[in-house]
Amino acid sequence: MVKAMREVGFSIVNYETWLPVKSMDFPGAMELLKKYQERAGAAGTDPLGYYMPVWAYADLQVLGDAIAATQSLDDDKLADYIRKATFKTVVGDVKFGPHGEWAEERTLAGQFQNIKSNSIDEFRDPSKETIIYPPQFKSGEVIYPYDRALTN
Fold first, then answer.
1. Which domains does the chain carry?
2. 71-104: string of b/e by CB count within 10 Å (b at 16+)?
3. In sequence order, what DSSP letters do the residues of 6-66 get, joined into one string?
4. Phi, psi of 134 (to 5 degrees)
5. Residues 24-51: pLDDT tens digits?
6. Rg, C-alpha atoms of the chain
7. Which of 81, 91, 97, 150 has the fewest CB atoms nearer than 10 Å to its CB?
8. How far is CA 121 from the centre of its chain?
9. Which pLDDT score, from 0 to 100, does residue 10 have?
């Protein structure tokens, strides 16, 4: 696969929700990821757990905090509270806009860089995937064409 990517010479940029990089190392995130990886590994599934587990946990933190604050399970009360509050979560501060959208962009654009093999162990190294957007989480620059990202 790596050889084929080099031959094609294109830039692979993908979206992510969370990555174990310094700019996203919020309180509790790495501990949660470690526990998740242990359980997922024992079950033979999702050995990395970067895509959804940390955000799934954060979603439940938001809901739990909203239920505790409103003392209610009423959808309208919860929605109203969630639109007005800022939540401290394992993905950092989360705040929503008036229509339920994120108040601040949270979708990441990332690029795998310096991949030398097909081993999953390379993807355990946070330096292998660089966040190129949004600016508050940026950890490096896009490398183009992609064959340079494989050989740097």
1. 1-17+107-152 (no CATH), 26-101 (3.40.50.2300)
2. eeeeeeebeebbeeeebebbbbebebeeeeeeee
3. HHHT----EEES--SSGGG--TTHHHHHHHHHHHHHHHTS-SS--SSHHHHHHHHHHHHHH
4. -80, 165
5. 999 999 999 999 999 998 999 998 988 8
6. 18
7. 97
8. 18
9. 44
The length of the chain in residues reads: 152
Examine the pLDDT at 6 and tell me if it is beyond 60: no
Whether 135 has a pLDDT exceeding 80, the answer reads yes
Residues whose CB is less than 8 angstroms from the CB of residue 105 and which lie 6 or more positions away in sequence, other chains included: 134
pLDDT of residue 117: 82
Q: From CA 1, how far away is CA 118, in angstroms rounded?
A: 7
Phi-psi region of 19 (alpha: psi -120 to 50; beta: other; left: phi over 0): beta
CA-to-CA dists, residue 100 to 63, 84, 133, angstroms: 13, 10, 22
pTM of the entire predicted model: 0.81
The one-letter code for the residue type at 133 is Y
